[in-house]
Amino acid sequence: NDPADVTFSFEYGKITARSADVTFKPSDASVSYIAIVADEEEFARYEEVSPETVKKVIDLQIKKAIAFGDCEDRAEFARYYSKRGEQTGNFALKPGLRHYACAVCVDAEGNYASEVAIDEFTAPSENETDASVSASILKYFDGSELAALDSYMYGDYAGWAVVRLKFTLDGSAADALYTIYPTHLLDQEGATDEEIRTMLLDDSLFDVYNFPVEPLTEVLLEWGYDYTLFAIPFDADENVGDLYRLDIPALSREGASPIAEY
Fold first, then answer.
1. Residue 19 near residue 236, CB atoms below 8 Å
2. pLDDT score at 47
3. What is the rounded CA–CA span in Å between residue 230 and residue 243?
4. Are 173 and 132 a contacting pair, CB within 8 Å?
5. What angle do CA 74, 79, 81 make, to 5 degrees?
6. DSSP conformation class of 30
């Protein structure tokens, strides 16, 4: 089958201010294609949204993947990230911005093999919410003692304070993300609350610096340093509540709870 003859249609599921379920439907289920959702800011440098600028956006994603070691070349990118048949994905959005669902067929070498299909939609604006989140330290343990007790389970804890946190969601909060930084680094960088909030909303930092909250969460902190925890809550429509901040004073081994309480 000739990929050049393939066309695409698009269907949309739930769309919130920050995410959308998008289904890509190629006219031929046997072809390989790359599908993206990009916002208007990603096209700002090109001054237009067109098949050629979509290719430039995809090319940039491929270059980044190669630079970060996710793949070696375009062919490997195509093997890892191309799709076949009808596929639905959940894509991050920016509130209130125009977004473009795009699809294009690729060959085995990752070269473009069809016309680019583009469909435009706009993310809803973010609404105010009463969602809130808070956190508290329940207790902490000496990670070296845990490692000595069971090196297989806790070997990575050696040398760290193992801090057990409790997160509480209030109001209409359905979920939240948190991050923790040494306070002296925040002071050196002069990081503002708005900058921290922006970082927490950066999907590229998810599971790297930003993590989903669990009712009970354990984090590893260095002894003798002050830390600051930040968290942001989301309601069911992914509207974002106020930034929460918890100052964690420097911990000492003398204050650690007995291992029997772990």
1. no
2. 87
3. 7
4. yes
5. 85
6. T
